[in-house]
Amino acid sequence: MLVFIFRRLLVAIGVAITVSIISFMLLHLSGDLATAIAGPESTADQVEEIRVAFGLDKPIIQQYFSWLISAVQLDFGRSYYFQDTVMDLISERLPITLTLGALALGIATFVAIPLGVLAAIKQDTWIDRLALMIAVVGQAMPSFWFALTLIVVFAVNLHWLPAGGNSTWMHFILPAIALGYYAMPAMMRLTRTGMLEVLGSDYIRTARSKGLSETSVVFKHALRNAVIPVVALAAVELGFMLGGSIVIESVFSLKGLGQLAWDAISRNDYPVVQAVVLIIAVFYIALNFVADVINAMLDPRLRVR
Amino acid sequence: MSQTLSNSTSSSPVSALSGPEASGLPVVPEWRRALNKFLGHRGLFIGSVILGFIVLAAIFAPWLAPHDPYVQNISQRMIPPIWHEKGTWEHILGTDKLGRDYLSRLLYGARISLTIGLTAALISGVIGTTLGVLAGYFGGRTDAVISYIITTRLALPVLLVALAMAALVGGSLEMVIILLGLLLWDRFAVVARSTTQQLRDAEFIASAKVLGASTSYILIRELLPNILSALIVVITLEMAHAILLEATLSFLGLGVQPPLPSWGLMVSEGKAYMFFQPWVIAIPGITLMILVLAINLVGDGLRDMNAPEGRN
């Protein structure tokens, strides 16, 4: 098991380095940086001055390593647009996105697991079909459109919740639903399949034949085992949500990481863009690593691969 | 098994014996069984019918559309659809903020969604299948390298990278297709890799090797036809994925550019009016959802037909 974790950790670090190269390239593909930093009204001399000052005259590999070394120390340089360092911007926004992600995951889990269990217990009844339908529709719904629809219904027509901003916890409810609905179908399906598999297994038959109540069989014996892969999936989904938050945050004008990325992208503020890409990717890699470990603890066969 | 055999060595006695004829059962042609299965699977049937309608609507858009989708008419702005009390038969689904006929834009928009979905899925299909087949067939170091590339790709947040790249190269229909094609190949690679691994040691591959077939012949003529059914399922899923991503990119302003009637763009243009005229975002949004739903139903159905025992 330790060997497995170690090997996976090596791969994860390798992937993180590859991603760092990609996000570094992103900055350099965007055009001449010295000109971009200097601004449109600068002279050729000023541009050259900046080129030397920022180390942009050095070979690209050297530039990459000095960028990487500062990036590891969480120093991503200064934003072109905002009068701030990239790290200040990110540490200000990250808690909002993490709150949103955690809430969304909570909502998704809260709906997906009971629905999945119910669908499995009542297999092939209308409840099962309804659950499947919700999942299928959920996967087909464009997230930005669902978010707008939530605003129209709950903020504009019913006046229950605010339409945008992030001043109170109420402001997080609609965005979290919009983001969570996105992750729910896969979790629901996995719970259902897992439950069906477990409910058909020998030890459940033993538990039933011992005369245990159905509730005890389902919740104490079956769910406990069926839910572990769902936890692993939830970790992966949280990573997806961090990437997907860009749409939801821009619709609800929630000032999180996604909104920051969106502002930076539309203003060609590439130091911020590459930092956000890298941070989200590293989060995602870490969460996948966690999911791998959970799955391997559950299923020893996976450790060999 | 009989199918895999008949694909490679149809003249050999083995396949003749293992076919249905050998068992003495009445012969039901392959396509009849497939058709029965198709009609018997409700989701697949409904999905195909809806998708068929949308494809026809897209193809015949110039004949079906009551108006030119690009012609603006300032005196006819924001007319509500027909079910609304102020609706007119002239504009069945109403008009947008520039007085353009909504139904006509919707019909032409189907062309954009379907074109992007299909071409992006094909580009990513070629990339992913090539990588997956090579990894699965050769194994060892090739597999390690390609698996690493797949893992790296999976670690990149698709939407964020697509947005950043679109901002770099400028949004347009062609750019969206190329970007999505270059980003969405991961599932093809994963599926092609695992199905190839399963077939790598199959008898028909071994016999082709013994007969002296070249590696490229084995991969393209023997292996590929046998993993195709699994890949077609992935094509449908990635088509749906690409269509949703295009809509999202266009909604955020970095995808298909105005005045093209992309459905995502229509939602974005209608956003300012949604409080008082919610139909401006409801119509393109629901259409988008129905299209993606239909494609997903077809995909799920095809998967069930391949592996009838496991529904999920």
Please give the largest β-sheet of chain A.
none
Instruction: Pick out the low-confidence regions of chain B.
Output: 1-22
Mean pLDDT of chain A: 83
Number of domains of chain B: 1
Annotated CATH homologous superfamily of the largest domain in chain A:
MetI-like
| CATH fold-level label of chain B | MetI-like fold
Give me the CATH architecture of the largest domain in chain A, please: Orthogonal Bundle
Supply the helix-strand structural class of chain B: mainly alpha
Give the overall form of chain A. Answer: flat
Secondary structure tally: strands of chain B: 0
| Number of contiguous helices of chain A | 13
Average pLDDT of chain B works out at 83
Strand content of chain A: under 5%
Shape descriptor of chain B? globular
Estimated structural class of chain A: mainly alpha
What would a concise description of this structure say?
Chain A: Its main location: membrane. The complex is a heterodimer of chains A (305) and B (312). Chain A has 13 helices and no strands.
Describe this entry's structure for a reader:
The complex is a heterodimer of chains A (305) and B (312). Chain A has 13 helices and no strands. Chain A is mainly alpha-helical and 305 residues long. Chain A folds into two domains: 1-73, no CATH class; 87-302, MetI-like (MetI-like fold, Orthogonal Bundle), CATH 1.10.3720.10. Chain A is flat and about 85 Å long. The mean pLDDT of chain A is 83. With 312 residues, chain B is mostly helical. The chains are: A mainly alpha (305), B mainly alpha (312). Chain A binds chain B through residues 11, 14-16, 18-19, 22, 26, 29-30, 136-137, 139-145, 148-149, 151-152, 156, 189, 192-193, 242-244, 246-247, 250, 261-262, 265-266, 268, 273, 276-277, 280-281, 284-285, 288, and chain B through 148, 151-152, 154-161, 163-165, 167-168, 240, 244, 247-248, 251-254, 264, 267, 271, 274-275, 278, 281-282, 285, 288-290, 292-293, 296-297, 300, 312. Chain A: It is a multi-pass membrane protein. Chain A: One of its GO terms (cellular component) is plasma membrane.
